[in-house]
Amino acid sequence: MVMSRTHHISQQFDKELEDIRSKVMTMGGLVEDSLSQVLEALARTDMELAERIASSDYKVNEMEVDIDGECTAILLRRQPAAGDLRLVLAVSKIITDLERVGDEVKKVARIVARLATSGGQDSYYVGILAMGHHVRRMLRAALDAFARMDSHAALEVAQEDPEVDKELEAIMRQLITYMMEDPRSIRGVLDAVLAARAFERIGDHADNICESAIFLVEGKDVRHVALEDLRQQLARGRE
Amino acid sequence: MVMSRTHHISQQFDKELEDIRSKVMTMGGLVEDSLSQVLEALARTDMELAERIASSDYKVNEMEVDIDGECTAILLRRQPAAGDLRLVLAVSKIITDLERVGDEVKKVARIVARLATSGGQDSYYVGILAMGHHVRRMLRAALDAFARMDSHAALEVAQEDPEVDKELEAIMRQLITYMMEDPRSIRGVLDAVLAARAFERIGDHADNICESAIFLVEGKDVRHVALEDLRQQLARGRE
């Protein structure tokens, strides 16, 4: 990975920063993979795959603890200045979001396993699968924006979050109709509701990762800033 | 607040640390209040109160940005050593959890507002109210454990999380029965499902705050450590 960052007198310090950065990308890759896999398991109602995903969550958890420990060590030993400090803080927040994405993936994996056992209707899941692929692309784009330190790309991803909310609304309306039409379907459809909510939250985490990327590049805390204001702020920064 | 912490050569630095610590408690108090209020609004199906809660979320968001900015400033200017660094890092994580609790409270407030409009059955909410009060007590105890730097108290709170999961399971079974008995109730009961899930996540955040408190006191990252192992670790630390 080529970085347009200033070099430190200590080459060792550069290596440490590069190390946490590349570990975040490895952790991100792991989470992305498990998200892709759970979508595959859902599409095929593949119980074996679902169970494998649910039981491999520990790897992501271990990486979170490992990377967070390195961040603390860097803060202690190196007392990083502005840009480097922001990198460490952004990494520390991003891994929390990645770990939570892992938790949501695990929830969906368990739902898929139940679906396989109950032989449930997978017609409920057409819209949810599309939404799942949408948030998967968002997560990948968010991690890319972080890796390339591209705040404008990050903003573009963040702009997709309201679309996910709209997808969720449409899915919820559909699922309520299913339940009303056939009360025996309620238990199964309720699992679909929870799966849809899990994907929504993955979209929220992708959004948070974008905010961390923008904080890293621009040095601004953009949480709770309206998208339109944010677009204007970044546009002014470009002039 | 009397602190059993070593004093720094710089009194100003002590003041800064005390400041973020007390601001976390203020933010925590704000979040606790809104949680108590939303439970009250739910108990009385009070739309006006619910709307007031939903629209006051911004205060918590502002505090998060404010405190996080102070944490970054301290890291930059003071290059804190071990214990102080842990305080800053713990604060930074706790305010993220508090902000998310605020988000969940807001979701419940919106459900209460809908419930008031639809004149929905509040009998669905008996178990959910009890669960809500449970996680409210957990949140308060978690913040107390942080304020008093008491890792054993924090562990006790963390041990309650499985109980909340059991409460949720019982509530879900009950709600599914309601839906099956009367399909016209589905839309309303689905809101109850989402409210129950929101309280569950508030319990998770209280749990995270306990982990941050234990990290602060013990210098150990205890996320993803089984409760039994944790109890043994802390017991050994006491010998």
Structural class of chain A: mainly alpha
Mean pLDDT of chain A: 91
Chains forming the largest contact: A-B, 34 and 34 residues
| CATH classification class of chain A | Mainly Alpha
Q: If you compute it from the alpha carbons, what radius of gyration of chain A comes out, rounded to the nearest whole angstrom?
A: 20 Å
- Estimated helix fraction of chain A: over 70%
Largest pleated sheet of chain A: none
Into how many domains do the coordinates of chain A divide? Answer: 1
Task: State which percent range the strand residues of chain A make up.
Answer: under 5%
Gross geometry of chain A: flat
Number of continuous helical runs of chain A = 9
List the helices and strands and how they pair.
2 copies of one chain form a homodimer.
Chain A: H1 11-44, H2 47-55, H3 57-78, H4 82-118, H5 126-147, H6 151-158, H7 161-181, H8 186-218, H9 227-238
Helix pairs in contact in A: 1-2, 1-3, 1-4, 1-5, 2-4, 3-4, 4-8, 5-6, 5-7, 5-8, 6-8, 6-9, 7-8
What key attributes describe this structure?
9 helices; 239 residues; Methane Monooxygenase Hydroxylase, Chain G, domain 1; homodimer; mainly alpha
Brief overview:
By secondary structure, chain A is an all-alpha fold.
Please characterize this protein's 3D structure:
The structure is a homodimer of 239-residue chains. Chain A has 239 residues and is mainly α. The first copy, chain A, has a single domain, classed as Up-down Bundle (Methane Monooxygenase Hydroxylase, Chain G, domain 1), CATH 1.20.58. Helices cover 83% and strands 0% of the residues of chain A. The first copy, chain A, has helices at 11-44, 47-55, 57-78, 82-118, 126-147, 151-158, 161-181, 186-218, 227-238. Chain A is flat and about 65 Å long. The model of chain A has no long low-confidence stretch (mean pLDDT 91). Chains A and B meet through helix 3, helix 4, helix 7 and helix 8 of A and helix 3, helix 4, helix 7 and helix 8 of B.
